[in-house]
């Protein structure tokens, strides 16, 4: 699983850091940062999925794997 955090819309509720503290951290102003490049280890997916669902401003997005991405039609 790979995720992206849009810090421009994060309002600092911090629910993601509660559900997945190994993936999200909160700075001194209450805003969230993503640990690493957004790659989520399988053992942390459950907490991250809960964070995705509970984010009130939808600042966290699950990225679609490249092999599953829709392909353009060519002529």
Topology:
Elements: E1 2-5, H1 15-19, E2 24-26, E3 32-34, H2 45-54, E4 60-63
Antiparallel strand pairs: 1-4, 2-3
Describe the structure.
- With 75 residues, this protein is α+β, with helices and mostly antiparallel strands.
- It has a single domain (2-64), classed as Alpha-Beta Plaits (2-Layer Sandwich), CATH 3.30.70.20.
- Helices cover 20% and strands 19% of the residues.
- It is built from 2 helices and 4 strands.
- It has helices at 15-19, 45-54; strands at residues 2-5, 24-26, 32-34, 60-63.
- A two-stranded antiparallel ribbon has the order 1-4. A two-stranded antiparallel sheet has the order 2-3.
- The chain is globular.
- The mean pLDDT is 89.
What's the quick description here?
It contains 2 helices and 4 strands; from the N terminus they run βαββαβ. By secondary structure, it is α+β, with helices and mostly antiparallel strands. It has a single domain, classed as Alpha-Beta Plaits (2-Layer Sandwich).
């Amino acid at each position: 699983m790979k995720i992206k955090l849009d810090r421009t819309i994060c309002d600092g509720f911090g629910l993601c850091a509660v559900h997945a503290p190994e993936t999200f951290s909160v700075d001194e102003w209450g805003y969230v940062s993503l640990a690493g490049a957004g790659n989520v280890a399988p053992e942390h997916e459950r907490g991250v999925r809960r964070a995705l669902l509970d984010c009130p401003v939808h600042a966290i997005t699950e990225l679609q794997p490249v092999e599953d991405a829709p392909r353009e039609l060519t002529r």
